[in-house]
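User: Can you predict the 3D structure for this chain?
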Amino acid sequence: MNFKPTTSIFGLLVILLFTGILPLRGQTTFKNPVITGMNPDPSICRVGDDFYLVTSTFEYFPGIPVYHSKDLVNWRIIGHTLSRPENCLLKGAQSSGGHYAPAIRHHDGTFYVTCTNYGGEGSQGAFYVTATNPAGPWSNPVWVGNWNVDPSIMFANDSMYWISPDNQGSFMAGTFDHATGKFIKPLQLVAAGLGGSAPEGPHMYKINGYYYLMSAEGGTGYEHREVIQRSRSPYGPFEASPYNPVASNMYAPESPFQAIGHADLVQLPDSSWWMVCLGFRPKGGKYHHLGRETFLAPVTWTPDGWPKVGTTGEVKSEYQMPSLPLHPWEPDPVRDDFDNPELKLYWNFLRNPYPNDWSLTTRPGYLRLNGSNVALTDKDSPAFIGRRQTAFNLTASAKVYFVPTAENEEAGLVIRGNDNHHYQLVVTQQDGKQVVLFRTIAEGKETFSNYITMDEEIVVLQIRTTDLEYTFWAQSEGKPAMRVGSAPAKELSTERIGGFTGVHIGMYASGNGKANTNPADFDWFEFVEDQE
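Assistant: Here is the predicted structure, written as structure tokens:
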């Protein structure tokens, strides 16, 4: 047997590094955000040496990802709480409808995630799901009988408390029987907001004999902030912290991070406290298109018992690492060859997908999309599979085999802001010829298009991104890539299109009112983040 010491030792070091057995040396700080791309409304819990975090997903399926970390900085997705059509009701949901502001807690061996479903067919509003393993499977929703957004729970005094806004600027609390899904002590008004607009995202904690009620206010724009109040009883009366806001970048207009808020607290084994919160990164002025992302900051306590991020509440770009063993995860390969019978966890559908629209087994080694009559502008589920745009500078490419037979048939790549705003790079027909077409959609209508003739059956489509621009390219075998078009990133920003989601990049096929006669087979999809 031939033994190569250098290669084997290097391989062993890599394994030890990514399993956390051998800690990294020299990394003493981390940079925000810690989870990039559309991951708003983070909620966190700690179970022993493990941390679990959930974020909002709105109209995307599966819903509510569960992220796992051992050091608060490095996170990986391990599953979704809403991964089946029967527990992820999204049919008919508007853009930025669906699942809002989850909260995750753990008690006596069971994980709980609360949430509100806005607009999915069959939704009854606020609910919770449970699991003994955070990776799943999770239960079907237990509906609590109201439509109050952003519910959360607290376990204290041998009781389960349900906390939520009353949709009129105040907060309610009551005790809850998690076995039956019924209130033991009905919801009652316990506290008002603290003066900002849209009080939301409440979490309650019992700490050193006080009940702290922390919430967001100021909307989700540049005046967003996190505030806190406390009481000796979960039912009040509550007093506001004299040091509010706990966290906000509204007083730091020069910061690259804005809209800091909608936060949750977690305590480490060394008794230190940390906060996860949402924020966004505007570019080219006040425009953000990646969506609201997840940030991390240390929390200190004043001598009189109030939490605060720093001295002003500003969440910074860089902090000292938490006092935990560093534990990076092995990164996903940049290319998905579709060689497995199940999709990787970072892929998303729009609303509840139709089973016949896609397959990983019909043609092994390919993702097959059967373009249906559903278009990207429809409030429905087109044959679309995408993932969050997680960096400003990246290259997304796919090798596709597709032969259209009419001008309505198309398949390729899409950058989606919402139903009415997206950029497309597709193989289709124009004037009886097969072409690669670049198209912009705004307000649900085509506003620009350009195409190049390319009659090959196999084409590589590519999207290159910067913080300000998308460019679109096509390449046939053995030939140079050709630029088909470009478009500004800000036209897919929240400031332009509204709503709460960030950009997704993915593959799709559609007959735009009539099913395609041929399937689109994607050999691979490559997603390369450039150094920023």
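The longest helix spans residues 5-19. The CA atoms of residues 2 and 8 lie 11 Å apart.
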